[in-house]
Each structure stands twice: as C-alpha cells, then as structure tokens.
Amino acid sequence: MNEFFATSWLHAQSSWLVALVLAGGMFLSSRVGNAVGMRQEKRISDGGRGHFGGVQAALLGLLALLLGFTLTMADRRFEARTELILQDSVDLGALNLRAGFLPEPRSVEFRQLLREYVEQQANAIQVTHARGSAEFRLERERAENLHRRMTAIVRAELQSVNSTLVVEPMIGRLGDALAVHRRWITAIETEIPPAIFVLLFGAALAAAAIVGFSGGLTGHRAIVQSILLTAFVTAIFFVIHDLDTPSHGLSVAERGPLIHLVELMKREAAEHP
C-alpha cells in the first residue's frame, strides 16, 4: 500500500480512464444495493426505512463535502501553476530587455542562452514524463545549467572595469527566475494525496449503493436516480483528477506568455543577428 501512494499510480492514469472506472463502479454498486434492498423490502419496517433515509442523506452530504473540498484544492493548484508561468515570462522578459545593455560578445552569448532557457521552460510545461523519471530530471538539470551559465556571464560583467549600473539588477532578476523555476518544479512534484482520491472513490461507491438500496426498500429500481448521481459525481471527479495532472490531460497550464516571449526573442535575433 505504501508503494502505491509513493509512486502516485493514480495520477499516472488518464482522467478519462479513472472516470470510466468510477462510473462503472458506481452504477454496479447501485444495482447491487438495489437488489439487496428489494430482497429486504418486506422485512424492514417504516421506521427502518426512515433510518436508511437519514443514512442516505448523511452519506450524500459527506460525499458533496469531500468533492467540494478536493475540487477547491485542485483548482487552487492549477491557478498557482498558471500564475507561475505569467511571473516567469515577466522576469525573463525583463532579463531580455536588460541583456541589450551588456557589451559584445557577452550580450549575444547571454541572449542565446536566455532564448534556450525560455524555450526549455515553455516546452517543460508540456512534458509528459513522469515526475522523478530520468527524463524529468534531465529537463530540470538542463534548465539549472543554463541558469548558471547566464549568471556567470552577468557576474563576470559586474566584476569588469566597464560595468554599468543597469547590469546589476540582472542578478536579482536571475534569482527571481530561478526561484520561479524551482517553485514550478515543486508544483509539478506535489499533488493531491492519492489517499484523498481513494476516500472519494469509496464514498462515491457507498453513496451509489445506499441510493440503490433505499430505492429497493420502496420497491423502486431507482435507475434514474443512480444514473444522475453517477453522472454528476463522475464529472466532478474527472475535473478534479484532470486539474491535478499538469503533465497531461485537458487542463494543462496555458503556456502562451512564454511562447509569445520566445517568438519575440527570435524576431529580435533575426533583426539584429
């Protein structure tokens, strides 16, 4: 069990697959619960039916609370990743502007490294490698290596005789860019604990079963109620899982600001080779 949580197997799966499995499990649970309820229909008194109605309401309320809490967590993490991309593009854009004040040939070398760094950051957002994999570590090390080389250029210029005051703030911008990069790595590596997803899964199955069981106690198959419950819960579960898997899925963080910066830097390089 510990290995399951450590490897985050659930997050590696497609959101469509997870939602499909949940939908099938909920509908099956509701049918099993309904069959058991119909067999117990004549054995349960009106007071017992009222008791199960209260249990059903409590369980559905608990499920709604868990879904709302988890959806809020996933949405906040998605917004944080989007904000990091915007902040990264602002810091790197400021560096690109100040790079023009570096003397040749340091200006050309710095801008080349910066362009590679921005392209790497933009592409890293769409990386599909599993966190902790060799490919993921390689992307991270490449970005940090480019950052070290840019810092070395600025430091050498600051130590030179002809250093200007405009160059000094570049060190701060480089530090900000590295901080954003590490926060982005942290945002990728941290995720909603799989235990919460397992709890949601179990609560959804139990809620579907109790809805079917309550319908069986009244002599109804409760198919419509089961389908509606399954559809709504599965849709919310899909959104939560999709928001919490930044490396794949529909809710990948928008990388437009970085792509725009890359295109701007390429045009500048073409105009001033």
Question: How would you characterize this protein structure?
Answer:
With 273 residues, the protein is mainly alpha-helical. Helices cover 79% and strands 0% of the residues. It has ten helices and no strands. The N terminus is likely disordered.
Largest sheet, in brief, is:
none
Shape: rod-shaped
Percent of residues in beta strands: under 5%
What's the number of helices?
10
Oligomeric nature of the chains: single chain
- Which residues form runs of ≥5 with pLDDT under 50? 1-7
Order of H and E elements: HHHHHHHHHH
First-last Cα distance: 57 Å
Question: What radius of gyration results from the CA coordinates?
Answer: 27 Å
Question: If you average the pLDDT, what whole number results?
Answer: 80
Helix fraction bin: over 70%
Query: Which structural class is indicated by helix and strand composition?
Result: mainly alpha
Total strands: the figure is 0
